[in-house]
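ok so for the tutorial part 2 we go from a plain amino acid sequence to predicted structure tokens. step 1 is just haveing the sequence, like this:
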Amino acid sequence: MEQDRERKDEVQQLTDVKDPGWRWPTHEKWWSDLEGTWKTRETTGSNNSDNLRDGVVCPFEVTTLINEEDTRDVKVQLRSPYLIGVLRKCLPHVAETLCSEEPEIDAKDLFLIWPALRQELELTQEGSTHGLGDIPQVDANGGKGQSNTLQEALHDGNGNEQVNMLSCDSEAECDAHAVSHFHLLHLLRFLQEHFKDTSARFAWMKQKGIVSYNMLWAFFTPGLEVRRLCALSGQACHAIVQSPGKYDHRSWAPEENAFVIKLRVMDYNAERYRKCIMNVKIEEFDGEVPFTSLSVCPWSFFLEEERHCIMETIEHRGGLFYACAMEEPFHFMHFQGSLGYYERALNGCFQLRRVNADGRVMVDLLSLARANPEWPLGNAQPPIELMRGIDKGTRKQEKPSAQELQFAPSVVYGFSFSLKKWGCFDVGGLRKISFNDRAYDQLVMESAKQKEMLRAIVATHLSEKDERGRGLDLVAEKGEGCIVLCYGPPGTGKTLTAETLAETLHRPLWAISAFELGQEAGELEIHLRQVLSTALRWRAVVLLDEADAYLESRTSNVDIKRNLMTGVLVSHLTVHPVRCP
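step 2 — the prediction. this is what the tokens look like for a chain of 581 residues:
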């Protein structure tokens, strides 16, 4: 009892913070170029200046950071262990930063959890305990209301309950808990005072469905479900806000000013479908604009019918994404729409270009990444082991749940056979191919027996699952390909033979002109190796048109460059197919 009485006397001596009109210390902080250090000055007098490091006497203080561009960031430095415990629970995304001795938090982060802090205060006022007396209550606008008693639970950094305020062991302990209630009360008073105008603008913009650039931060709370527009396709996608957005302002490049938001999405990297984080920028704009016109918008700003329609499209596209990109390593499809591909600008940076790509495509992320290792694929970048061809064993991707597929991308990566370009395709433009199974039957050849033999040979090579050990040459990895030389004058059906065979066998036809492989021996070797290895993976029919440009007889009368190119082509065709996992 004597020990409890001493604890009670100690708490009663700290009366300043229990005053409903207690003022928190405020400071201004700026960088002095002249002295090369941070300068600080106190802007509001405080009776607690001698006890700023006492978390009971001074639960928090406010510092305004003046930046070079005369912008101001308001920081709240926490002293009270009670407030730190509450904020760890309400702000899990910054819980680690609250583990320091005197953590500092952005005042805007507190605005985002204002409703949660009010709920915490209401918890402290429910029920009744002995020896607490009356405590002022905060209403929905942050003002004082009628009195009530205290009920509060302190939590550790993991959100586990440590102390139950409903059962105090002593009167002094209950008084200490009452002080913690005032800490939260004063923090809400600060928010009410500091964000008075912001709250009014926030409510008005929310009602009107509009937003200004400077108010974007107030709408994107962690865990909020939003609609984002894909930067590659412009299609609506589903995402969740990971952490509060931040303004990225650069005085030397104001045209690059933007508001950056971290979003939780899901993506496929040729190995597995997993959760990812992506940064989305909203470029600076003037005035107020409809929220739905921005690249990221909370779902609450859409009409219920409109949201339902968009989500139906997203869910359908998620199922199509799984079927085209994940169910099999590659997928031969028909596409209608535009192809997005990267091209280096004069400054060395990649720029996204678009071109119409109606026709047949092969959806294959891994082959695209191998053919274009420098492309910025973001979360879709395959692991380095797959890029190097290290076989981890074939594991079929289990189909994700419908909820997980809501977060799927709106594009897949692959190759357009009509444009002969790698790039990305809008998932919504993909369709199954309708093959003409009688195409080869309609081909007229002089010898019907030769026609059927050709079909049987090509079909056997394309349907073989494991090409190892079936070469005709004594040397390993030689003579394993199927090479057919079609010759004759123009218009006799050389190209048509390859086209009808591929159509009837449901295989992609990769037509390559001589100029596409390059005019130098080294360039020819690189391109030919890539084409043959990729075609082997796809079990495709490769049509090398105008091959006579490379297949002239090698004699001393021909220049060395032509001899080298002929040698490169013959040597690669001899050892075709090139091994690839």
